[in-house]
Design brief:
4-stranded mixed beta sheet, alpha/beta, 15 helices, 4-stranded parallel beta sheet, about 425 residues, binds pyridoxal-5'-phosphate, about 40% helix, Aspartate Aminotransferase, domain 2, Aspartate Aminotransferase, domain 1, single chain, 2 domains
Length: about 425
């Protein structure tokens, strides 16, 4: 017997109301309605409890409703909400703190509200600074849902029927090694997908390339991690070709991969690093880290946004940084990630339906297939697992280029006990599939 019969009565009523009044264009989720959450646990409106493998969508890195975070937000709400572009102590000191912890070449911080705005701003500034107009991005890439971000997307679903998309955007294959577009394996490929960039430039561009944009690992496409060294070579390629390098860390930052920023794994020095999600840990906040020499080409007023850098967002981000400093969350992310990946890799070896488990720190993907020999993607099995997990008290969601990857991204405060219980649930559900 499953632990919960879902949806419970209160969830059922609200889900019906959602269908009736919300239009149904948000993504499909497990059948319950969130009520409140704490640390790495969530309760639905019927009182059922779940271990959280979502962190919202890789947002609540410091844990749901961390007392220091909540207190900082509450304090700021009573003081000042929005002075627009007037500097505030909260904003200016946050900029300094972020400059101090990001790669050393990034010496300027532009505060905004969402990740899409941050990637959009990076591409806009790259064009303005270089005087060139072309942007190279990657198959499977996701950078948000505003105009330029959609044009840089490497998946039809993100820009479905929104054409014609902006001109000047071209895409090149990403290192999806489990399904290599060239049919090679990392031990022999010599990063063929990277070499292909030259072909893309030769065949699809006018030669006026402003920037390359990539996620360090592709989240929406299914937590696809390029092999070690791939990003450094991409950065070197950008330098050789005199184009700017945008490393979209909206999702991969703030401890998610067992380092504060993904760039640290390979000592990368991107010209732009859009940050979002974990920076506010639930309060809408984002920023673009870049270089003063690039910001200097802008006239006063060219880079602004109504709620960007508002004091509540900045107070929330300060609290997030305090918590990282006090609670060794980066280390916990690396340690718990290693444990969970080990458990899930055992599952990969035992189940024919698990094609590949991959990840770093506390962000992993479990890719489901019809059969591990054929590697045929299976949405159907993925959703059977996700729904069964909900009934056993594990909150998780689906992503992937083929819609067949379960996201493993708990808040970074998860402890060994909850990590173990959550892996037990996943294991029993997957091994129970007929
Ligand atoms: C890598 C990446 N870039 C950009 C975005 C867009 O962020 P937002 O939804 O805050 O606009 C996302 C969101 O999922 C993301 O994962």
């Amino acid at each position: 017997m499953p632990k919960y019969d879902l949806p419970g009565p209160k969830s059922a009523e609200l889900l019906e109301m959602s269908d009736r009044y919300e239009g149904g264009a948000t993504s499909r989720q497990q059948p319950f309605v969130w009520d409140h959450a704490e640390g790495a646990r969530v309760w639905d409106v019927d009182g059922n409890e779940y271990i959280d493998w979502t962190s919202g969508v890789l947002v609540t890195n410091v844990g749901h409703c961390h007392p220091h975070h909540v207190e900082a937000i509450q304090r700021q709400v009573g003081r000042l909400l929005c002075p627009y572009d007037f500097p505030t102590p909260e904003r200016v000191t946050l900029a300094r703190r972020l400059v101090e912890i990001t790669p050393p070449n990034l010496d300027a911080c532009f505060m905004i509200t969402t990740g899409s705005e941050a990637t959009e701003a990076a591409m806009r500034m790259a064009k303005r600074y270089t005087g060139r107009h072309e942007i190279i991005s990657f198959y499977g890439g996701f950078h948000g849902r505003t105009g330029m971000a959609m044009a840089a997307a490497g998946k039809q679903g993100t820009k479905y029927h929104y054409g014609p998309v902006l001109t000047g955007h071209v895409q090149s294959p990403f290192a999806y090694c489990y399904r290599c577009p060239f049919g090679l394996t990392p031990d022999v490929c010599d990063f063929k997908c990277l070499r292909f960039l030259d072909t893309v430039v030769e065949t699809q561009t006018t030669g006026d390339i402003a920037a390359v944009i990539t996620e360090p690992y592709q989240g929406g496409a299914g937590f696809i991690f390029p092999p070690e060294g791939w990003l450094s070579e991409l950065e070197a390629w950008c330098h050789e070709h005199d184009v700017l390098f945008i490393l979209d860390e909206v999702q991969s930052s703030f401890g998610r991969t067992g380092r504060m920023f993904y760039a640290e794994h390979e000592e990368l020095r991107p010209n732009f690093m859009p940050l979002g999600k974990g920076i506010g840990s639930g309060i809408p906040t984002a920023c673009l880290m870049t270089e003063q020499r690039i910001m200097e080409v802008f006239d006063r007023g060219e880079a602004s946004s109504t709620t960007g850098g508002n004091p509540v967002s900045c107070a929330a981000a300060h609290a997030v940084l305090d918590i990282f400093e006090r609670e060794n969350l980066v280390e916990n992310s690396a340690r718990m990630g290693e444990y969970m990946k080990g458990r899930l890799k055992e599952l990969e070896a035992r189940s024919n339906y698990v094609g590949e488990v991959r990840g770093r720190g506390l962000v992993m993907g479990i890719e489901f297939v019809e059969d591990s020999e054929t590697r045929e993607p299976s949405r159907e099995i993925t959703w059977r697992v996700v729904e069964a997990c909900a009934r056993e008290g594990l909150c998780c969601g689906v992503v992937g280029f083929y819609g067949n990857v379960i996201r493993v991204a708990p808040p970074l405060v998860i402890d060994r006990d909850l990590a173990e219980q959550s892996c037990d649930i996943m294991e029993s559900v997957v091994l129970g599939l007929d």
